[in-house]
Amino acid sequence: MSRRLAIIGLDCAEPSLVFGPWWPRLPHLAALMERGRWGRLASCHPPITVPAWACMASGLDPGQLGLYGFHNRAGHHYGELALASGAGLQAPCLWDLAGAAGLTSVVLGVPLTYPPRPIKGALVAGFPAPARAALTWPRSLGPLLERWAGGPYLPDIEDFRHLKPADLLAQAETMARRRFAVAQGLYRQYGPEAFMLVEIAPDRVQHALWDESDPGQEAIARHYELLDGLVGDFLAGLEPGTLVLVVSDHGCQRRQGNLAVNEWLISQGYLRLKARPPAPAPLQAEMVDWPATRAWSEGGYLARIYLNIEGREPQGVVPPDQVPALKAEITARLEAMPGPGGAPLGNQVLDPLAIYRQTRGCPPDLMLYPGGLAWRASGQVRPGEGAGFFLAHNDTGPDQANHAPQGIVIAGLAGGGTLAQAGQEVVGASLYDVLPSALAWLGIQDLDREAGPGRAWRWLC
What we know:
Layout: E1 5-10, H1 15-18, H2 27-35, E2 37-42, H3 49-58, H4 62-65, E3 71-72, E4 82-83, H5 94-100, E5 105-108, E6 121-124, E7 136-137, H6 142-149, H7 165-190, E8 194-199, H8 201-209, H9 216-235, E9 243-247, E10 251-254, E11 258-260, H10 261-267, E12 281-282, E13 295-298, E14 303-307, H11 323-335, E15 348-350, H12 352-355, E16 366-369, E17 376-378, E18 380-381, E19 390-391, E20 401-404, E21 406-413, E22 425-430, H13 434-442
Parallel strand pairs: 1-8, 1-9, 2-22, 5-6, 5-8, 11-17
Antiparallel strand pairs: 2-21, 3-4, 6-7, 9-21, 10-20, 11-19, 12-18, 13-14, 14-16, 15-16
Helix pairs in contact: 6-7, 7-8, 7-9, 8-9
């Protein structure tokens, strides 16, 4: 019998909780840990849902994929950013490589798989996808989703940041229960050698409810208990000896505030506006005095800073030979920035040219993790001068959490089997290691695949 693999992704699952105080409340994950291996899983840069799951599934870094976040520049113009989609993911992923080797795959809810494309097996596309879109390959699979789910299949929770906590938790539970019910139906029907599911509910719950005091934390703990039970029910239906990898793309931490990066760039003389907006608003191209601007930023979980480079942007002013010096200057100033209380904020600035193997598409010139990811980045500009850079509220809707740079990995065998060195913590694991480890387990040699940063785990293979 050929080896089998099941990857269960829990978006945003936080290692300090899973491996810490909540471990006794998660018996199915704890049993896998005791008979297998477990540890922290370093995410990619940036550690966000898009591109992290695509990096895990392809083994490539964001630069190699040309995917730097949920939205990316489609060209070196000043227009709006383009929403990432699976149509822009050209690299072969686990299911493509498995199919080329003659193996069947089931892919369920993995981000950046919309629009669905043909694979050997079945695919149900994940976030982001248009509401009521056709999510499945083959197309004939669509009607079965509702039958297996016992109700409408829910790819995501619409407008989750604006729901009341009780409504959000109820929708998250319904969504997760239905997704795992569909997982069982797909597994029974296709009997895949390679299976991958991502449940996005924990990300939605934690962003909306994260709080260091009850009731927020207890509500999140109960949601983790729900997920543990669903994982356990699914594992019970797997072939004994199936390798199970429970993973998350990043972790979670309390959001301490928002940093208005464009306001900071204005204060430092890098960005100039034609006029201030009448109310706080996202930076728009028509607001900017481009001939007097050297840098601007897009906000989000991080800030992506772009330079207005001569010969690249339509009204570029920074000579190409001055780009390295300008990057170094902006980096030094940001990393020295004090926080609201005067102590260093702890900003981290990354240069895509230095951290990626390639930079396809239009990468940012710099990436800023405000407060080392403890703060979000705001792209807003405001009516008055000197309003400050520190905002209490998130400018895209209520949000209590931000991402953390490490997720989880728990490796074990279905059916009660035991891995070598069982119970030991894995040190130094990265999400880039998941694909080469999966291929090695399945016996797939892929000599033609573009090399990524990861390596197969020797303790597994």
